[in-house]
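Before a colleague's protein record goes any further, I have to sign it off. What it holds is a sequence and that sequence's fold in token form. Would you go through it and say whether the fold makes sense for this chain? The record follows directly below this note.
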Amino acid sequence: MRIGVVTFPGTLDDRDAQRAVRFGGHEAVALWHGEHDLQGVDALVLPGGFSYGDYLRSGAIAANSPIMTEVVAAAEAGMPVLGICNGFQMLTEARLLPGALTRNDSGLFVRRDQLLKVERNDTAWTSGYSADEVITIPLKNGEGRFVATADQLKQIEDENLV
């Protein structure tokens, strides 16, 4: 499988994402934010970092980059898209996901390992795990508090967006 990893100005985890794709046995395809060509990839990763320095809202400027037109169209056509950290913020800013990410309750940048329970293993991103498996992921963000209305949370669940 060919998985595109998009780089934006300020992105700092794109190389890590490409390495993870290769480690998973797939071909990593480097994509540039200023292009409109997804190069025939089968899935997309929007990695973390500080796109455009996060000078407005995290992910807000990147969500308007040329490649995001293609990302939105591909996602709406069913292509798997994974947003990691700042990439997830881009997905909310591009309105691919309802809700928003806001400053952490503490007001501080958080950096720690986080245990997650795999609720579903029938997605492109979780099929390598067992249902109910507990995994550890690195957590690092300053704007990681996801907020959404009850209707938006229902939509997320109903459309299997997480």
Remarks:
- The longest helix spans residues 66-76.
- The domain at 2-148 is CATH 3.40.50.880 (Rossmann fold).
- The longest strand covers residues 110-117.
- The chain has four helices and eight strands.
